[in-house]
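hey so i finally got around to running the thing on that chain from the lab meeting. sorry it took forever, my laptop kept dying and i had to restart like 3 times. anyway pasting the input first so we r on the same page abt which one it is
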Amino acid sequence: MGLYMNDRSASRPRQRVRYSFRNILTGSDLSRRRLAVMTAEAARTGPTVWLTACAHGDEVGGVVIIQEIFRQLKRKPLLCGEVRAFPLMNPLGFEVGSRHITMGGEDLNRSFPGNQHGSLAGRIAATIFQEILQTGPALVLDLHNDWRNSIPYTVIDPRRKSANREAYARTRRFARCTGLLLVEESSKSPESLVSHRTLTGSLLLRDIPALTLELGEAYVVNETNVAYGVQVIWNLLSELSMVATQEKPFEFEMHRDFRRRFLSYSDGTLSSTSGIIRFLVKPGDVIDADQPVAKIYNAFGKLLETVVSAQRAVVLGHSDSSVAFPGVPVVALGLL
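ok and heres what got predicted. didnt touch it at all, straight out
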């Protein structure tokens, strides 16, 4: 089932847009829960690009970015190929503002490639993953949101020995076209141990280029970050010759030392005490080794600790909370 819209203007390329659904479960009241699917298809064959968002139900900005991309495609239709999207991968978490799938508390983005006979998260992941695989995409962009105070950046998964080198090389080339700060997840990070269970990590293991875009805070729609996301995606569609080439591709303003360089992600600037955090740096700042990034005070205003950076870095974002606990990240950094 679906809704079709055809662009038949003589002055513009023909394009078909389709909205449809994939069933994920039937409730005890016999209501159906579904995944929305969006497709824009040009008359000429070409690459397929997938956009995905809201794997974490509290990360809503990507949903709006995808909606805006499809609005823009109505004004500036594809020259070739198709753009497909799962704009709301975790509707169950979205409805209650939860990162996880409410039934069972599972993290959808730690459930790929999925299992049609497994847990609910595994079944949803399998539905999404198999449909993406069947289209043989040139690129998959998974949209996420970060801390409230953060700059937008592109993340690529660490390359694993079992991953195709060419797919990984293409991923790096696409990342450089985003116009954003480039961050490569460290293979030594505990988080990287689960990257093969994320959507992008699982796709790379299937030789499909895939990037994560971190675009501002969760819970709310930040229009500035929506605009960044639309421009980044348009950069990539232009790179694939799916839309008209832009005279001036989007590029996020950043320090020249960090342009087109892959930085190592680190949230290792941890507090060792409990107290009130007062930040000394802001997202986008370039900091030096041993530079203080925050001070921790107790209830009486006594300084307990000064948190410093271990090396030169750019500040990606800082904690949403002003409360520090031992071993809890204070700021996230992109390390040179």
